[in-house]
């Protein structure tokens, strides 16, 4: 039983050391991720379009 209380106390101490992100940090990270994913998606779509056009012209 003493091990359980010790584990709980240590877990609570460690959790108090955690720094959670603010809403603004989460929003900024979300915007950054959306922008990066959009840019990569557009790039891959352009590469796919160019490659499919070149393959269809060859065949």
From TrEMBL:
Q: Name one GO molecular function term.
A: protein transmembrane transporter activity
Q: Where is the signal peptide?
A: none
Q: Which residues cross the membrane?
A: 29-51
Any single Gene Ontology cellular-component annotation:
plasma membrane
Q: Which UniProt keywords apply?
A: Cell membrane, Membrane, Protein transport, Translocation, Transmembrane, Transmembrane helix, Transport
Compartments where located: Cell membrane; Membrane
How does the record classify its membrane topology?
A: Single-pass membrane protein
Q: What biological-process GO terms show up in the record?
A: intracellular protein transmembrane transport; protein secretion; protein targeting; protein transport by the Sec complex
Q: Which Pfam families match?
A: SecE
The record's subunit annotation is: Component of the Sec protein translocase complex. Heterotrimer consisting of SecY, SecE and SecG subunits. The heterotrimers can form oligomers, although 1 heterotrimer is thought to be able to translocate proteins. Interacts with the ribosome. Interacts with SecDF, and other proteins may be involved. Interacts with SecA.
The record's comment on protein family reads: Belongs to the SecE/SEC61-gamma family.
Q: What does this protein do?
A: Essential subunit of the Sec protein translocation channel SecYEG. Clamps together the 2 halves of SecY. May contact the channel plug during translocation.
- Official protein name in the record: Protein translocase subunit SecE
